[in-house]
Every structure is written in C-alpha cells, then in structure tokens.
Design brief:
It is a single chain. This protein is α/β, with parallel strands linked by helices and 174 residues long. Helices cover 32% and strands 18% of the residues. It has six helices and six strands; from the N terminus they run αβαβαβαβαβαβ. It has a six-stranded parallel sheet, with no helix packed on it. β4, α5 and β5 form a beta-alpha-beta unit. The protein is elongated. This is Leucine-rich repeat domain-containing protein.
C-alpha cells in the first residue's frame, strides 16, 4: 500500500516521515497547543496511528469533525480539548464511543453542563472538566442528574458564580 500525495505531504510536514514503513501505529501521546492543527490533521493521523493513550489539544482549529476522527483511537485514556469554540454537543456521541476514556477536559468549548446531562453516558469516565456559565441553583440540579448516570465520575466546573465565605471564587466539584 502506498501513501497518497496529500498523505505523504502530511507525514513529511508534521513528522518528517517519508515512507509508510516509518509511520508509527502507536504514539505515547499527542500535544498541540495554539497551532493550526485541524480536522484534516486528525484525519490523516488517525488513518495510520491506532493507539494514543493521551491527547492534549489546546487552542487548535479542531471541530466536531476532528473529534469524530479521534473516536477511532484505541486505548485513549486522557483527552483534553481546551479552548475549542467549534467543539459542540455534537461531539458527545463520539466521547461516548471512547470506551477507555477516563479523563475528559472540555473547558472553553461550546459544550454545556446541560448538554452533558442530556447525552453523556460513558461509564469509563472518572473525571470531566467543563466550563459553566450557569448559576448555582441550576448547577446543583444538573449535578444530581449527571451523578445518577455517571456514578464513578467527578465533574469539575470552571465557574464564575461560586464563592467561599470570604468571597473568593471556588471551582465546584460534584
């Protein structure tokens, strides 16, 4: 099997790999911060690399389509998609397909606590990190809903509405 012209260009540009034989099928992890990596990047990557335990993406151009590509990765335990304004609730079914996923960070995305309450149902999750603009009353109601469904999962909210007795902002954990 040969690499297409576009795929060969991808592997040369991003990984300095020239031949199909040199493309790894497994990676220890993948990190991309404030880059132009996008859905096409993840498409080509996931065509050849099948195992990546940890992926950390912050401020890239990845959208819901890229998350769909990531759902093909085996043994993915930690996924960070921080600061991705085009990652929406349409990605939640893909998170549900990631059967080894234990830690999910979707802070500063378009996914809300309400969205998670409606459709997140990945029983392997142990921690989810999420931004929230909701008030404390709404957070408490939704906390009960999601904790019933995901008994072994802690939800960490980056929220501006909760304060301690001294007026210091807290990040609620439920």
């Amino acid at each position: 099997m040969k690499l297409s012209k576009e795929e060969k260009k991808f592997w040369q540009r991003h990984f300095r790999i020239d031949t199909l034989e040199n493309i790894p099928t497994e990676m220890v992890g993948l990190t991309s911060i404030d880059t132009t990596d996008d859905d096409e990047y993840l498409f080509y990557l996931t065509q050849r690399v099948k195992v990546i335990p940890e992926i950390y993406l912050k401020g890239t151009l990845v959208t819901d389509e890229g998350v769909a590509h990531l759902s093909k990765i085996q043994e993915l335990k930690e996924l960070t998609l921080r600061d991705h304004k085009k990652v929406t609730k349409a990605s939640i079914p893909y998170f549900n397909q990631m059967k080894n996923l234990e830690r999910l960070n979707i802070t500063l995305t378009k996914i809300t606590l309400s969205d998670l309450c409606e459709s997140l149902n990945n029983q392997s999750l142990k921690e989810v990190f999420l931004s929230s603009e909701e008030n404390e009353k709404n957070i408490e109601e939704k906390a009960f809903i999601i904790k019933e469904r995901l008994l072994n999962c802690n939800i960490y909210l980056d929220c501006c509405y909760t304060t301690d007795s001294f007026g210091n902002i807290e990040k609620p954990i439920f």
